[in-house]
Amino acid sequence: MEIILAKHSGFCFGVNRAIDMAFSEAEKKERKGRLFTCGYLIHNKEVVKRLESMGVTMIESLDEAAEGDTVIVRSHGEPREFYEKAAEKGIELIDTTCVFVKKIHDIVSKAHEEDVPVVLIGDREHQEVKATNGWCGYRAHLIGNAEEAKTEAESLKGTEPIVVCQTTIKEELLKEVLEVFDAAGIRYDIRNTICNATRDRQESCAELASQVDAMIVIGDERSSNSKKLYEIAKKNNKNSIFIENAENLLLNRLTKCNRIGCIAGASTPEWIIKEVISHMSENVNKSMEQNPMMDFMDDIEKSLRLPKPGDIIDGKVDQVMGDAVIVNMGCKKDGILRSDEVAMEEGQTLADLYKVGDEIKAKVIKSDDGEGGIMLSTKRLVAVENYAELEAAMENRENITVTLTRAVNGGVIAAYKEITGFIPMSQLSDRYVENAEEFLGQTFDVRVIRVDTKRNRAVFSRKAILVDEKRKAVAEIWENLNVGDIVEGKVMRFTDYGAFVDIGGVDGLLHISEISWGKLKHPEEVLKIGDIINVKILSLNEEKGKISLGLKQTQPEPWTLVGEKYQVGDVLEGKVVQIKDYGAFVELEAGLDGLVHISEIANKRVENVFDELKVGETVNVKIMEIDPDKRRISLSIKATLPAEEPVAEEAAEEAPVEEEAKEEE
Ligand code: SF4
Fold this sequence. Notes:
Layout (H helix, E strand, L loop, with lengths): L1 E4 L7 H14 L8 E4 L6 H9 L3 E3 L10 E4 L6 H10 L2 E4 L3 H15 L4 E4 L5 H7 L7 E3 L2 H11 L5 E4 L5 H13 L5 E2 L5 H14 L4 E5 L5 H13 L3 E4 L15 E6 L5 H15 L8 H12 L7 E9 L3 E5 L5 E5 L11 H4 L5 E8 L7 E4 L1 H17 L3 E10 L2 E6 L2 E6 L18 E10 L4 E5 L1 H18 L5 E10 L2 E5 L4 E5 L20 E10 L4 E5 L7 H8 L5 E10 L2 E7 L2 E6 L11 H4 L5 E10 L4 E5 L12 H6 L3 H7 L1
Parallel strand pairs: 1-12, 2-3, 2-4, 4-5, 6-7, 6-8, 8-9, 10-11, 10-12, 15-17, 25-27, 30-32
Antiparallel strand pairs: 13-14, 13-16, 14-15, 16-17, 18-19, 18-21, 19-20, 21-22, 23-24, 23-26, 24-25, 26-27, 28-29, 28-31, 29-30, 31-32
Helix pairs in contact: 4-5, 6-7, 8-9, 10-11
The protein binds iron/sulfur cluster.
């Protein structure tokens, strides 16, 4: 035997919400007064019994309640004066009126205010119809069948009524009534308020009933929608059975059936459906070998199982309201997708994006919104996709583009599509950042360095990209550098032993001894920070990242030009750079020193060179001899002086001959 549960079965969104609200109210430990339901919360005895066992008593009218009591308003709704009376008496109301029923209240209430006649198609004895009529001053034209439509059509002639329906009537009835109106020439404004949950159950009932050997409709005898399902089932399958619970099921009617269809009204709780199915599977199949009961119950369980927060569901749009879309998710509860959970452009409405029957994918954000609804979000689904993109980007070390939106403690918040991530201050740049404000509003690429999809968190780094880019650029630079190349560079900073020069992305060391052909005490004597200079690459060590540069190598070595630039007999200005016992060295230009022998310092006998000259002193000298090969220049100060005292012989004798001094040099 095969048991098939109809696609749409059991609690609808409105009933579910009402029950959840009622049970959670009943579970509250502290209450000022008593807790009541006024009339049947829903048309199901089992549910009412359970509520009673939790201390919720059913009353017939508000007269039975007093100040401080709490009354749960049933899902079918109450008329306007019910609310007014509760307020007067100080009775708290827990309003479980279904949102679709409330929508009808709004329509008829507005029509009443505008003096527009209201036609209400439905069962005049049903609580929903009574309550709705109470929102238009009990002046609705109530129509329960085509005959009544004909009578009312007479009184409606010359008017243009608004037509609404009880949420659970059959589409057929609405069609019949409108045909009567059309025939009578009545213009009307139709608002088809038949609930989709009803429509879906009715359609799947008709479809299933026509395919099975027997059709079982489970519902309370007072449940209007369950009874209508039974009518539909019977119309499509003579072997249709209406039961309230498993005990009512006469199994002998099913023993010869191979395929049994099963549907439950919108007010039938899941435990009753399970009981009935389990009962059938256990008993009818006793003699049958192929009883896939366990699998079957699994399927039932599956259809009754509720999605959890975080689940991604596929569903179908069931209803589109002003600020929410009701989504059928193929389980016992419907999902609610509120407008603030949908990414919409300014001016867009839900109706612009969705229509009934549309396939929809959404993320479950709450399995119970406090009112029994399963809250969905497509916006956060986009966020889920965005987080998945981040994960992929992190794995593949790909960059993503973000916009910096606000500064927070320790960093900034950066927006990526529908989600945001955090950039710590230290990751904003490859340089020290003191104030993040300067980055706000900027859009740039970042690397994803951490993603936590469970906690919806992501951390980005811009520094990682900058460092990588730099590394790449440096590698390229290294590739193009050769020892001996002359490259342009910028003096970046000094140390005592030289200067660091940026040669297009990498720094090289210009040692103090490589700056000038002359002797320097500090690079500042020749260079300034920011100077653009040409330097020669003296050595490269890529492994250690060291580059040695030379500046003096870009200029001719002075001794190579000495023959061209200087002649014996030239009188020049020079600087004393070194003093020895036998004389003083005088710099003619950087890297070109000549010796003034002690005997050539003055027109007198000089005992001690230090008494006559000081390092740094500028003196006039005459070139006495030039020997480029030996790199020697003999200078004389004396020869530039007017002849006065003869040079003391002893001094001349004691001093080493110039040749000896040159050797020492
Ligand atoms: S059948 Fe529709 S209108 Fe009635 S309670 Fe359920 S969801 Fe609301």
